[in-house]
Amino acid sequence: MRPDDEIDHLLGRDHLVLRREHPTLDDALTRACTRGRIARVLPGVYADRAHAEDPVLRMAAVCRWDPNAVVQAQGAAMLTFWPKLAPPSTLQVASVTQHRPQPGFAFTRRRIPAELVTSAGPVRLTTPALTALELATTEFTDPIDVALHSRQVTLATLYDALRTTPQRPGNVDRRRVLLDSRAEPWSHAERQAHRLLRSEGITGWVANRKVHVGGATYFLDVGFDRERVAGEIDGRAHHCEPDVFESDRARQNALVLDGWLIVRFTWLMLTREPDYVIRTLRHALGARRLR
């Protein structure tokens, strides 16, 4: 087989060719890269030009290039609990091996504990718990909220990740975020609602309360079991898709017929009219208690 044909065969198999794995192709790879037939991803790592900028391929490339590499941050999030996250322009990679800077990659000299490393195909990456924990800040809690909503993490696994990575810069703030997450919110709007309820001393509620109605399973954003009152939180990007709009109405009908009183609040209500939210909720709870 001609060298160029062999390169094409290897690229057709997994879109990557490593020079060290095919020493007989050394000169052919150099010529193909010079002519623009293939693209350099990392030193000695080549891809066909159509896939060279694909973030998942680049993650696979760095893990083949360095057996100690672990993808972290946004790259790890998009491969696990946050598939809708926009691909990062620069992949964050941890490794015990010291590397020079490479275009599109940022390397951190760090050993990730084995129990906090997982894999997605050929890509080694930080677990969802560690990924969410390290992406979150006191001002940007979305990573933890999205991870909890995906049910790929729990509050317990988040605390385990924090304990397993002691003395990391930022751990004090991460612990604060976890304390603020004690009711396990699934969105920033739900987190805001939980803060409001706690600040007003309202108790007896369960976040993301699972209920079974007519063979279907639903989750109430905030459920008061004793009064059978549900507080539904409509976030800033609430139910834009037509199919979600329709299913949400059917869901509410089923819950109402099952005896739940549902009150709905928006992000603007929570942030600009918190008194209205609390007043409405107290009214609903009081009406049910009178019954």
UniProtKB/TrEMBL annotation:
Span-the-membrane segments of this chain are none
Q: Which intervals hold domain DUF559?
A: 187-283
Q: Do you know which Pfam families this protein is assigned to?
A: DUF559
Instruction: Please state what the protein is called.
Output: Type IV toxin-antitoxin system AbiEi family antitoxin domain-containing protein
